[in-house]
Amino acid sequence: MTSEAALLSELIGLVYDAALDPTLWPRALEQACVFVGGSSGVLFWHDAATEQTAVLHLFNEEPNYTKLYLEKYLSLNPCFPAATFCEAGLVYASTDFVPFEEMAQTRFYEEWMKPQGMIDALGSNLEKGATNSSIVSVRMHEKDGLVDVDSRRRFALIVPHFQRAVSIGRLFDQSKVAQAVLTQTLDNVTAAVFLVGPSGRLVFTNAPGRALLDEASLLTERNGALAAAAPEAQRALREALAAAENSSATVGGGGPIPLSAALPGRWFANVLPLTSGDRQRTGTLHSAMAAVFVGKTSPASPPPLEALAKLYKLTASEIRVIDAVMKVSGVKALADLLGLTQATVKTHLHNVFRKTGTARQSELVKLIAGFELPARE
């Protein structure tokens, strides 16, 4: 029986290779399902403001159900827009947003999930913009059972590697059609990426990376080599690059390197050795031994709906109701739009009124239209 560590190592390698060869993404998603304990997987992009989704790669989902989701059931998914509010890298299950008993009463479940045998899903935002996010998801079918502690733990182990692979995929755009779609739909990826050769020599820097070097508060270029400004960070970066050069680093690198605690947000560098598969071939083309990418963990200021949801501790279902109130009025119209019964809509509305101190739909519209976060003391 293959150990968990061996399965994880194989999967991580496949994820990074898929970043360079998009035809491998279905295999990577398949291996993710095997490792986590799910039956189908998807890498997609979603915009809560426009209610648009682009499905990038799939494993084990019938094309007609994908088509149905995009054309009919996207707006009925009870997990949105709440799921797009989660910080990048946070692991969530669909039942975290909507309990299964409540989900089973929706049209989304009855008409789209149930016919496929789907009962739950794990997901994570790989990149998060103001209203949109790129998401990886592993779906649980009836034979898998609902998400449990172990499946959640395993999914959490692979999410950081999917995040890094997305950044690397943009860097090594080979002008393939599928890769062009990935690049176009993930325009909010803002990681600074550097390719380095022996002794940390810089051989390639993308635009965000050049901006960081010009600012010189986190990273600098010293005699043609990449260096961290803070002494502790420089020691960690030098050790990680040396390990990559000597082929002694793990597939996913040695973990994030804190760059500075003094600047707004928390900045980290990650080192990916270019030592196997397509990563090795791509590294050879650029005379590179490793890819270093840098990002900040703190999200941008949330849009009004997200900020309001956090302030009033609204559930996913309550967030959907408020979002719908901005589009239609009246209980029947809300029920039709959300795929819920009128009784369920009335219950959610009552809870929203109570939490927000409003009494009618028109007051809710005014609240979100003029909403601003309270000033911090």
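Second entry:
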Amino acid sequence: MQAIPNYKKNLVRSTQSGYTLIELMIAVAIIGILAATATISYQTQVRKTQIMTVYKEINQYQMPYRTLIDNGAGVTDFSPRGLNMPAQTKYCQFSVTAPLAGSTTANAIICRIQNLPYLQAQTLSLDYLADGTWQCQASTGIKDAYLPQACQ
């Protein structure tokens, strides 16, 4: 058996290891695409949550509104103050419309959305239907993807 000279042993062991520039660029590109997708998904979820908060706030008006209707014709103060509700929250400026006897009251409760830059001058409202149920309405500037199921 023949011995391998030392200089040849060093050549065999000195093979390069590591990543090429192209491999690193591909990895960075993939990470960039994933980060962009995650950012868009995060923003969508934040907006859905904010609109759901607005929807929950406006739904708190349903019971006091119905209570005033049940109190009869003598009630004249259909306003946030008359319903013992706040006129304004972080995301809403509320207004209330008196019900129309025996018919649907469009925009019975309205939330003018505030403090959300992507929804400037938009509204979310509840219609009081003649059968005593509620229907949610959103202004056209609010994307359906952000709305709760009841408002689509």
